[in-house]
């Protein structure tokens, strides 16, 4: 369905009915409705706006749906969002992802999340001076080695 037709349908049905229908469709397709969608559904305009944005990004993507779900799974894992991981893992499976592909993206996400922790910490340590604001708060600082 094109964007203009979708907007016409929303206008004709109203926000509440549209939100209800879209939540039913999500549950039918994925088996669950993510909690964030349930809460957004309490304010239909928010849910509709969010899903329109999400749909526009995905539907205009040059990536295959399976890869979009694998990326979403990796991001959810890196952000430590259990619900995101579960939802996108199930969605990736339905779109043809193998167990090996799922494990690979989780491994890559973990590697990058770990690198992010190390990079931030090392930057702080490398930039530590005698007057470190964090050290002033807790009275301890990692001494610089020579």
Oligomerization status of the protein chains: single chain
Shape summary: extended
Low-confidence stretches: none
Q: Helical amount among residues, as a percent range?
A: over 70%
Q: Please tell me the overall pLDDT.
A: 88
- Kindly estimate the percentage of residues that lie in beta strands according to DSSP: under 5%
What kind of sheet is the major sheet? Answer: none
| Distance linking N and C termini | 65 Å
CATH class of the largest domain: Mainly Alpha
What name is given to the CATH topology of the largest domain? AhpD-like
Count of the separate structural domains:
2
What structural class do you assign from the helix and strand content?
Answer: mainly alpha
CA radius of gyration:
22 Å
According to DSSP, the number of beta strands is: 0
Number of DSSP helices?
A: 8
Name of the CATH superfamily of the largest domain: AhpD-like
H/E element sequence: HHHHHHHH
| Architecture (CATH level 2) name of the largest domain | Up-down Bundle
């Amino acid at each position: 369905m094109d964007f203009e037709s979708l907007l016409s349908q929303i206008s004709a049905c109203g926000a509440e009915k549209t939100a209800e229908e879209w939540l039913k469709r999500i549950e039918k397709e994925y088996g669950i409705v993510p909690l964030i969608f349930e809460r957004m559904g309490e304010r239909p305009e928010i849910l509709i706006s969010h899903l329109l944005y999400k749909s526009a990004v995905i539907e205009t993507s040059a990536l295959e749906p399976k890869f979009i779900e694998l990326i979403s799974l990796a991001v959810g894992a890196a952000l430590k969002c259990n619900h995101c991981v579960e939802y996108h893992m199930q969605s990736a499976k339905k779109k043809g992802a193998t167990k090996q592909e799922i494990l690979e993206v989780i491994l890559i996400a973990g590697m990058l999340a770990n690198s992010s922790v190390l990079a931030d910490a090392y930057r702080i340590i490398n930039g530590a001076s005698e007057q470190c604001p964090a050290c002033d708060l807790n009275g301890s600082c990692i001494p610089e080695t020579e």
